[in-house]
Amino acid sequence: MADREPARILVVGGGYVGLYTALRLQKRLKNQLRRGARGEEGGVRITVLDPDPYMTYQPFLPEAAAGSISPRHVVVPLRRVLKDCQIVIGEARSLDHERRVAHVSTLATVEQTGGKGGTVEVPYTELVLAPGSVSRTLPVPGLAEHGIGFKTVEEAIGLRNHVLEQLDIASSTRDPAVRDAALTFVFVGGGYAGVEALAELEDMARYACRYYHNVGPEDLRFLLVEASDRILPEVGEAMGRYALRELRGRNIDVRLETRLDSCEDRVATLSDGSRHPTRTLVWTAGVKPHPILAASGLPLNERGRLRCAPTLRVEDTDHAWSAGDAAAVPDLTADAADALCAPNAQHAVRQARRLADNLADVVEGTPPGELTPYRHSYAGSVASLGLHKGVAHVYGRKLKGYPAWFMHRAYHLSRVPTFNRKARVLAEWVLSGLFKREIVSLGSLEHPRAEFEMAAGSVPPPDTK
């Protein structure tokens, strides 16, 4: 590589694929990165672009919402683990792949343009496009005004605070309508995110009721709305039926083949005609490709994901790579010729490593035709249904209850990046088993300047009459 120009690798996205790709590249291209840092010919520079300075380990969000794990321990600081990479906090708005330039909006460009959102050009030699996905919403009346997402750590902690605040409202009101709405919690979506979030928060809320003199566990009402005929399809039909019985056995109202038609005026109206006044509506009904994919000019499939070869290169495009939620990667282990890998964390982590190895090979001079294709048989799935409860379908074996819950924790502890995070999460699990749950709501964190603004006179004090 001594006679080559320095390679600039741009990784768009700091999630599963972005983080694990950059970690692997750091290891594979250690010498080239050193030369790149010194400005020497033949060096390599890696830039990781993401709106947040951390990677969120999303399988731990339900436990963070329930208070079993501290929020700061479900995120991995990019600058700490990617020491040999340049971290840019910003978002790619569009790509000009012919010129190999990304148009990027950063906090600095927003400040410099007075909030108008200007962009700067970031050049690259090789592009890894892994922005992940965004929540898929539907034009349901009232959803934008009253819905709560569950995809980021901020949303998870905000939901925890919100649920505990509803108990405070119910405990302090004399209006039966307000009380019933505060104690009704509606979750839309019966996949991993919806079921695990509901199960963990239901556990937490019923536990918290023991500290309220006039709110009992039997007063709470949890409702799960799912458009298909089953929940948790990832764990198989038998385990899905068990999960359904488990939830209904906990007095959770599960409505299958039912849709949310409206949530205007804080009333969840379902397709079966029922109406449920509620102050809590959590939307976990799937995801869709990140908008940058449509603005990239790269080949997409009918679902808006990048068409990729088994080597993780974007089809019919040189110097562009992708994996994870953003990519439609052929599943070489499936019987069907047109089968694609499921867009889940299990494939994303393994695809990222293969992508990084193939990219490193190309940087080191390996012809594209000699790259190794991605091949991985699906191992199975695990899901938590709250403390000491779960379901699992792994390598053909079906587990439920405590063994499945233990496997869920063990698997995700092994997958979370860095020894530092593994040790902290394990320590918190041990401590949470020895001591009582934390049930404090810190909702004021969402408006940290409110009290100071009131003291300074910029906002009127609350009416106490």
From TrEMBL:
The keyword Flavoprotein applies. Coiled coil: none annotated. Residues 8-337 form the FAD/NAD(P)-binding domain. Belongs to the NADH dehydrogenase family. This is NAD(P)/FAD-dependent oxidoreductase. Gene3D superfamilies: 3.50.50.100. It holds the Pfam family Pyr_redox_2. Keywords: FAD, Flavoprotein, NAD, Oxidoreductase. The keyword DNA repair does not apply.
